[in-house]
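SEQUENCE-TO-STRUCTURE ENTRY
===========================
What this section holds: a protein sequence and its matching fold, both as plain text.
Tokens: labelled as protein backbone structure tokens, with as many entries as the chain has residues.
Question of interest: how does this chain fold, as expressed in backbone structure tokens?
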Amino acid sequence: MLAARTALQHEGKLPVQDYELALVDRDWNIFSLYRETYAIDYTDLKRERYKTLFLPGCSLGSFAPELTRAAYTWLLSQGIDAGFSELCCGEPLGNIGLKQRADRYSHYLGEMLRKAGADTIITACPGSFGYLAKSLPEIKVSPSTA
């Protein structure tokens, strides 16, 4: 199905607007709209410099904010120099068939990590773990269970 969606996108036969809410490279998407609607905010967890980024994943960060905060607090309690981001890993873009857009988004995440001084991502999402390990090979990606 992914190959078919990619080919259809390439040929302009799969309307991007049908997937508008899944365009996670936009400021608003299904996850950011949910967090805004339910006043889920992680601004207080943001830092400019860190060695490890905690990227909980779209679902955990949106639908379980208490658990997300508890996981981040636990990482800090273990002495991990962790930053935080509620951004998506970008996998939905690739799953829609928007490979170039997904690649640009991965590049953006990589640049964000370099600016912060980070060399590791810890994620609670198994999909993010697999996707980031492939899309950011220069970054160490660990599941939150490691």
User: Anything to note?
Assistant: Helices lie at 2-10, 30-37, 58-63, 65-77, 91-96, 99-116, 126-135. The mean pLDDT is 93. The CA atoms of residues 31 and 73 lie 22 Å apart. The two ends are 32 Å apart (CA to CA).
